[in-house]
Amino acid sequence: MGSSPTDQQAEMNHVLTDEELSADEEVQTPGSRDKAGGSGEGSRKRTRSDVWEHLSRLPNNYDRCKCRYCSKEMSCPTKSGTTNLRKHLTNCRSFMAWKAANKSKTQSRLATDAEGNMSVGKVDDRVFKDATNDMIVLAELPFNFVESLAWKHFCNKVQLQPPVCRKTCTTEIAAIYMKRKAEMKKVLGQNKQRLSLTTDIWTAPYTAASYMVITAHFVDSNWKLRKMIIGCKNVDDHKGSTIARVLVDCLAEWDIKRVFCITVDNATANTTSMKKFKEEFINQGEDALVLNGEFLYIRCATHIINLIVKEGLNEVDDSVNSIRNGIQYVRSSTNRQKSFEFWVDTGKMTRGSLPLDVKTRWNSTYLMLDQAIKFRAAFEKMEAEDKPYNDYFLELENGKKRIGPASTRDWEEAERLLHFLIIFYNSTLMLSATKGITSHKIYNEIVTITSNICKISSARGADHTLQLKALTMMGKLRKYWDPFTEVSEPESSNSKKCKMNKLLIVASVFDPRKKMNFANLCFEKLYGKESIEYTLLSESIMDILKRLYDEYSVGYSTSGGGSGGSQSQGGSSSQPQSQCSGAAAVLQSQIIGNGIGYERMDNLYEELVEETGTQDSSNELEVYLREKVEVTKGGNGLGTEYDVLSWWRRNSVKFPILSQIAADILAVQASSVASESAFSTSGRVLDPYRSCLTHFMVEVLVCTEQWLKSEIHINEKGIVTIEQMLSDVEQQDDLLREFETGCNVE
Q: What is d(CA 217, CA 621) in angstroms, rounded to the nearest whole number?
């Protein structure tokens, strides 16, 4: 039963007594660690009143104090007593809220209403459980963490509810996964989104089980690139038929019936899997694949770059190994590091100054050489005067003498290689991005790499070793990125070439800063403006653009995409106008003599206007390509860049069909890094302490973690969340049902 206003007023007017204030002494107040009560100088007499547990004297003015809760300053001369201070505490809402919160031994929270009034509320059990489940998923903790002594002690100390058992936690996390999956399925189904996919396979080191991660990419209605893992499926083997079957089953599970492109690495099994997937998935419907799946398969660009670089590194293995072994010697003990630092003339040597590479990752080799060359003088001095360093290279490694120490020739080889690898390093950084669109950048990087290698391989009087290296790389580059390869050679051929996906070129056209101008410039750079290759490629890209536009135009008109709006304009005057034109047509059909028909100049002018108007009323594609390119200032390709998606968002009304193509083609991924990055999560999920997880729970944890992290990232940036998109979908469904109900009643 609630208290009356009179009782509340009396309670507010009641002045706290010393007994009531002293009842709070056991509870620590804000700033109460200062046992002097904030009384200022140490020579001052210690305060005795209990009000000083809640107020502090100002350090620069002993006759004024401040409330520890609302920070209000008041006068407090020593001769005036503490009555006015006690009255303040009686009326201080912040103090009352703190006092009420600390009466119970359970965790509470302070809530503020619209008028600024504070109230105390207990943390809801459901909120506590959801937060615990999110923590288990995000921190990749084992389920039995909720039963650990550490977690129970934490909950007890901060006065939270007793934690649930691990079985309950497992069940609730699985329920979170199913709920979020249903929400996202509804959003994707409502928008009829066409997705681009990336996929790769990973084998768990502790269980030897293989998992295939499938990641979907799309541009949402707010023109933001979205990425989400839709599957982490256990696979029995790495065969093409298995990959295709798992991919089709996963898309059916999500009710996804429209796919734009799939980016995978260069494994032979993936080529087979894409053929089988295309044959099966095309039966989903006429619009299941774009252009009948002709450009479905995209090879991972970073994987191809890795293969190209390996061709060049094979010839300098000994030079790289000698430098690597020298770094390994320095990093092997603290004493050796201190000894090496003695030879360093400038700068301070730390353990991070000389990183070791991962032999299978050339970019880490690039970074290792980049740092090692800075300490070349120190290595050379150590070789000349440090006997233990030289003895290290006399030791046997796998039955052979260890390579090194690095000679002058080795250092020169490393420097040349470093200057050479910068081409590939910059391109890899550009194409490995997963949070932004990269499809419109791929062809730029392909041409940049090709043109630079071509110049090195054909330069006169240059280093012959570097030329040979460049020629070797060119052979590998042409194998994967030759746009004129139409049909692969027989499987038995060792020099089998792969067909380049020309959508990599088409994607650059949808950058409003480039359009066809950039593509034509690239063709001219590679083949020459007057060459037949230039003409063929330019015509081929225009043909693909027109075919894409025609296919999307059919889908746009079928869905009622606004083409009928112009037909109703001027309807009130159409009848008189048609009568006049009909009369003129009758007159023009009359013969006036000698077989000559009656001719009127106004009719001739109307025909001229119709012909001219037909020529000017170009479709969206022609208008877009005819307009001037966007000119932007700044941006070097590696920093903050022009936002292509924002341009298409602003111009989606002007180019409704082209904007749909742009949304799909800009969501295509240049590499499969998005799926490969999930393997680092999988490796932590399936650590030695969680190796007994079922395949379903592995998928639950991997997918839910990525969804939660994406949601948190989106909330921080103020982007529309899945829940908000689902709410919009449900609202539209409700409005549609109300409209249909109203029509039926009428």
A: 25
CA distances from 216 to 189, 213, 230, 490, 666 (A): 14, 10, 7, 33, 13
Q: Residue 40 corresponds to which amino acid?
A: G
pLDDT at 36: 41
> Tokens representing 9?
């007023």
Q: What digits encode the pLDDT tens for the residues 685-696?
A: 556 666 778 889
Q: Counting beta carbons within 10 angstroms of the beta carbon of residue 601, is it exposed (0 to 12), middle (13 to 18) or buried (19 or more)?
A: exposed
Distance between CA atoms of residues 503 and 510, nearest Å = 11
Q: Measuring CA to CA, which residue among 177, 236, 233 is closest to residue 208?
A: 236
Phi, psi of 511 (to 5 degrees): -90, 115
CA triplet 311, 315, 318: central angle to 5 degrees? 130
> Which residues touch 604 (CB under 8 Å, ≥6 apart)?
none
Residue the block writes with tokens 């199913």: 178
The predicted structure's pLDDT at residue 261: 92
**Do residues 679 and 194 make contact, with C-beta atoms less than 8 angstroms apart?**
no
**DSSP symbols for 38-103:** T-SSTTSPPP-SGGGGTEEEETTEEEEEEETTT--EEE--TTS-SHHHHHHHHH-HHHHHHHHHTT
**C-alpha closest to that of 202 among 667, 550, 715, 702:** 702
pLDDT digits (tens, 9 = 90+) for 211-227: 889 999 998 888 888 88
| Coil vs helix vs strand at 299 | strand
Check residue 573 and give its pLDDT: 37
Half-sphere exposure of 132 (CA within 13 A, CB side): 29
Start-to-end CA distance of the chain, whole Å, equals 51
Helices and strands in the chain: count of H runs, count of E runs:
30, 14
Which three-class secondary structure state does DSSP give residue 183? helix
585, exposed or middle or buried, with CB in 10 Å at 0-12, 13-18, 19+? exposed
CA distance 147 to 406: 55
Taking the C-alpha atoms of residue 406 and residue 205, their distance in angstroms, rounded to an integer, is 35
Question: Taking the model in full, what pTM does it have?
Answer: 0.69
Q: Find the helix or strand (DSSP H, E) in which 212 lies.
A: strand 210-219
Instruction: Indicate left, alpha or beta for 450 from its phi (over 0: left) and psi (-120 to 50: alpha).
Output: alpha
What single letter denotes the amino acid at residue 614? T
Strand duo 259-264 + 297-299: pairing: parallel
Q: Based on the number of CB atoms within 10 Å of its own CB, is 299 exposed (0-12), middle (13-18) or buried (19 or more)?
A: buried
The β-bridge partners of 350 are none
Strand pairing class (61-67; 55-58): antiparallel
Radius of gyration, alpha carbons of the chain: 36
